[in-house]
Structures are given as C-alpha cells and as structure tokens.
Amino acid sequence: MIVEITKTPDAAYDITATMDTLVSEAEKMKQKGARFITITAKDISETDAEVLYHFEVEDHVENIHLITKKAEPIKSITGVYVAAFIGENEAQDLFKLKFSNLAVDLGGKMLKNDISPSTLLKPAVGPQPPIMRKLGPCREECPAMVNIPKYIREVENDNPEAAYNTIIDRAPIPAILGRVCFAPCQEGCRQELEAKPIQIRLLKRVAADGFKELNGSLQREVTCKAPSGKRVAIVGGGPAGVATAYYLGLQGHKAVVYEKGTMLGGAMAWGIPKYRLPKDLMNEELMARLNEVGAEVKLETAVEDLDTLMSEGYDAAFLGIGADQCNSLRCEGEDSEGVISFIDFLTAVNIRNETPAIGSRVIVIGGGNSAMDAARTAVRLGADDVTLFYRRTEGEMPASLHEVHGAMEEGVNFDFLSSQIKIIPGKPLKINFQAMVPGEPDESGRRRPMPMEGRGVTVEADTIISAIGYRGLVPAGMGVEVNRYGQIETDESLKTSRDNVWAGGDAVFGPTSVIAALRDGRIAASSIDKYLGGEGLSDATPDMTEFVARPVDKEALMEAPRAEIPELDPDERIKGFDEVELLLEKCKATCEAGRCWRCDWNE
Ligand code: SF4
Q: Which atom of ligand 1 is nearest to the CA of 200?
C-alpha cells in the first residue's frame, strides 16, 4: 500500500466523494471500464483521514477522493471492485479506519497474521468468506437481474420472508411472477445441461405464498427515504407503472398512478386468465407495493393529454401505457358478426366477469400464449370443439411449451400450416384456410410459410377468435416521439423526447413480458430519481455480505430428480377458472432449491 497521497496533475481526474456517494462513484468508474489500481490514505488530524481510490481509465489515472472522520465506518467498495478488499484491509491496519460491508474483513490483522491469501482463494468445504463471487448464469439471463441464487438459498433455508424481499429488490411482484413469468432464467440454468433446470419460477411462488402465510398478507413495512417533495405522474397501472411508482416511493418521491381501466395490472389484468393468475391475488400484490411507499392510485382515469396532467404540478412523468390494439387477420370477412379479437374476448371474461355466448364450435387463429389463453378460456366457457389454427409448424409456435401442453391436455385441437384467407358471414360462420408449406427462412429465422396451390379446407364455426398479436397506440396528446412501429422512442435511461418524461414496457418495446416491464420500471425510477436530485438505484451486484458454502456432493446434485409442477387434473380444470398450478410442497421446494449449484461462486 502506498501511504502518500498522489494526486494526478489534472484536477479534472480528481472526483470528490462523500460517504453517501462513494459507492455510486465507484459504480460509475466500473461502468466506464476503469481498472481499480489501489487505495492510498493519510492522517490529516487526530480525528480525520484522507482516502484516495485510484483507477486506470484508458491512458490516465483517475481518483475518487474522500475525507472522513476516522470513527465513522467507510462504505466498502468491494461490492463493486472486489479487489479493493486488500487496500481496505491495509487501511484498517495502518490508519485505524473502519470499513462497513467489507467483502473479506480481517479485522485490522491483515499485516499481522498467518492467513495467506492463497488460503482465502481456495476455500475448503463448508461455509467460506464470500469472495470471488459473480452473478450466476440464471441471474444474467433474467431481464430484471433478480438475485436468483440468493433467493433459492433462502427458500432452501425455509426463510420465505428473506426470499420475498430479495426478489422485490429487483422485481416487486414475486407472487405474480411465480405464476406467470416465462422464466428465461431457467434456460440459462446450469442444471439445463442435465435437462433438469431448477424450477426457479415455482420457487418464486414458494417464497411469495410462504411470506403471505407467515405474514397474513403480502404487504410489508418498508423504509423509504425522507420525502423529497417531488411528485411524479405514472400513466398506466401495469407492471412497468407499478414498478416505477414503487421504486420512486422508496427514493422518497410521491407517485400518483393513473389507470384508465377498473383495475391495476394492464395486460396482466385483461390478458392473463384467472386460472393462471387469480385477479384478487394480482390486485393484492400490486396494491401492497404501492401502499408500502404511499403511492396514490386513480382508477378509471384516462390520460389523453400530458400537458394538462403536468400542469397539476408534477415534476416528472412515466408512461407505462402498454399495448392493447389487436393485429388484423388481414383476410376478407374479418368484420363479420361472430369474429372477435382475443383482447375483447379475454377482457370480457377476465375483467368484466362476463360469459360471452361463443357457441360450441370455436376457432382460434394464432400460435402465441394469447392464443392458448383464448383457447383454454373457450374450453372453460363450455365450447365442445375448440381448434387452434396456426400458419407455421408446431415447433415454430411462440407460445411457451408449458401452455401448449396445458391446452392439449384440456382438449384443444391444433391445425398447423394453415393460413386464413376468407371468412364467409352467417350462422355458422365459414372460414377458408390455405394449406402452407415451410419455405426459405425469413427475418425471424423461421421458415416462411408458402401456400400449397390448390390445397386448403373450409371449416364452420360459431365463433372465430383472432389472436395474432397486438401493438400499442400512443395518444398524440402525450407529445412524445414514436418510431415507425408506433412505439415510444427513448434513450437507454428510458427518457423520451420530452425533458421530464420517461417511458417503458410494451409501449416502448412492443408486447414483451412482465419481467421485462418490471426491469423498465426500475431503470426509469432510477433515471427519474437522478433527475430529481437523487443518486438513483444500485446496479445488480453479488451480495458480498452473504456467507455462501460451495456445493459439496456434485454427483448428488446432478442425479437429484427435478420437481414436477403440481397441477389440477385436466378434467377438474375445465370445469371452471380455479388456479391450475398448485403450490410446491415445502419439502419438495427444499429439495428443488437444494439442486442449485450456487453458480454465483467462481469455480
Ligand atoms: S444451478 Fe442455481 S445458481 Fe446455477 S444457474 Fe441454476 S438456479 Fe442459477
């Protein structure tokens, strides 16, 4: 360790930090690719010390400069640069400084003990100091970068409260995600190599339902920063809007959520059937997060003109207005009576609790999760013959395999490589399908379906449900730039073309996923917080304070069976809208969590 302070000649490279900004300044260094060099320090009085953190940035050195009271613990930067643990321990030895959250704290004995660094870097079996940590492949695949390895350990240790809080740190609605997330994390899971990825989504539900059982509700007590006096309008009460409001509330800002519908949830509310996501549970968890931070909700309040809204004294706004315009079938006769969009159909059933008269023969056109939701809902409404037509092959359907299997189990028929060309009005409706054959790959990488001349069928139906995707429509009164697809243009911080307006979710990226919308909410809240004078939210880093043991019996990990998703029997399911998936029993959840490799350890 160098004990003299060395300042670079150019003061532009000397950044002054306070105790509150030290870690975020280190994070900024990391973001611009700076290499940590070392720490230097010197006493400037009996009570005060000066500490410099040195970084190599391209061809020069930059310093973060901190003056501190010796008695006051300095926030360790080892959560950002783990290598700083050596310099921080040396500073404890030489200057009697104290660091909090130090990844490896040798208690002032680094220079006076018999522990060799190699002992630290090659831990034996059993609990070890939390050094050499990384995010883990599951976490890297998660759009919101939820600390998955950590909450899996918390579930394994039967600590649902800790697991629930760990998830909320980056994705505020674990009970909902545990039911509907498409779980890209599972595709990245190391156990996927054994074709047995950890049931990460199910474990999220175990955490949330376990927390609710312990606590009696999903609402927690949280500590928000002191009120800033700033107000932010959130337009849209879907996952992006609620996440933005929650994280802004934690930072001390007052969020007011404007939702045009009768309930919060956006596409989760109108689009996801109750048998996948009970609406009372969805509402409870969304309201829990908003209540925890004192956010206000205005239901059935459409915002068409942002200038008018901002004139009510808001300092910033977030647009999470979603996407709810169904794509056209692009075939003659699609306006015929008896042809409805999946959005109108599902909204009637999911939100208004209606039972549309769909008759006994129902055709659903599409191959995504929305088409599966529409088909499975039609089965539950009593249709005898529900057939789903899709213009590509089975393997090219965008729907998740789990949903496709669920539909098949419930008796939905599938007809692949058939494209609608004409609907003939009447009772029953008639619809002509053209037979298709896979051609050359298109821009999506899938083989473009080509018509087989002279081959096709005509089918009769009482109802035809169109489910071939949807898009957004941004009201002109929002005053923000949109791209040629009608999506709001933003920069990386999700700021729109207006100075104090941010946006995220489906309105920016087109229909994506709940977890991606939550990611956007957190990014936007962080950007808005900085705009309002705060420091923003922290980046995803391993929890260096957590004590982690490496897995010991690797063969057992590979051989352990994967937990099955517990579900209602198909004959029972189709009688109503009871939740299909059931909670994993506690002992099975513990075993499933125990199959985790703890990949946030470096090998
Ligand atoms: S084994 Fe565990 S830590 Fe590793 S990728 Fe899978 S869930 Fe994540």
A: 7
